[in-house]
Amino acid sequence: MADKKNILTYTGLKKLEEELQNLKVVKRQEVAQKIKEAREQGDLSENAEYDAAKDEQRDIEARIEELEKILKNAEVVVEDEIDLNKINVGCTVTVYDFEYDEELEFSIVGSTEANSLEMKISNESPVGRALIGRKLGDNVEVESPEGVVSYKVIAIKRS
């Protein structure tokens, strides 16, 4: 089975590459030093510092493996080529929320970059799926656990 493509913006790609570089160069060295210092304390069977350092090493290696897999299957959205006539990954969309009588701004990103606290929503989320392909002025209805949410697309721009 082929691995799923990870859709990323250029900013998201750079962020992941920087994290990977930091883990490989800085964090690996730091944890290796912690393990070395813990070994020098003697008996490893009751050494909490050693166990904690080994756990941290395992977590770092798992994250490195995860990042390498994401980057290997990355498909970068070229922001300059985004069609601003319709919503797609790499767009920032302003919508009017009818229920709360307010404007909301979402950045549509791939699932790897999604962060609801930063209003970065995945193209695979219910709202993201409903917005993809829509045009300026379109009314959009989104099924949510609380019921149907209605939006009107009032602006589309590059992220």
N- and C-termini, Cα separation:
32 Å
Largest pleated sheet:
5 strands, mixed
- Judged by helices, strands and strand pairing, the structural class is alpha/beta
Low-confidence region ranges: none
The SSE order reads EHHEEEEHEE
**Cα radius of gyration in angstroms:** 21 Å
Strand order of the main beta sheet, please?
Answer: 5-4-3-7-6
Q: Tally of extended strands?
A: 7
Mean pLDDT: 91
Bulk shape: elongated
Q: Indicate the proportion of strand residues.
A: 25-35%
Percent range of helical residues: 25-40%
Number of helices: 3
List the helices and strands and how they pair.
Layout (H helix, E strand, L loop, with lengths): L5 E4 H30 L8 H25 L1 E4 L13 E7 L4 E8 L10 E3 L3 H6 L7 E6 L2 E12 L1
Helix pairs in contact: 1-2
In short:
The protein has 159 residues and is α/β, with parallel strands linked by helices. The chain has helices at 10-39, 48-72, 126-131, and strands at 6-9, 74-77, 91-97, 102-109, 120-122, 139-144, 147-158. A 5-stranded mixed β-sheet has the order 5-4-3-7-6. It has a two-stranded parallel ribbon with strand order 1-2.
Question: Can you describe this structure?
Answer:
This protein has 159 residues and is α/β, with parallel strands linked by helices. The chain is built from three helices and seven strands; from the N terminus they run βααββββαββ. A five-stranded mixed sheet has the order 5-4-3-7-6. Strand 6 (139-144) and strand 7 form a beta hairpin. The longest helix is centred in the first third of the chain and has 30 residues, at 10-39. The chain is elongated and about 70 Å long. The two termini are 32 Å apart.
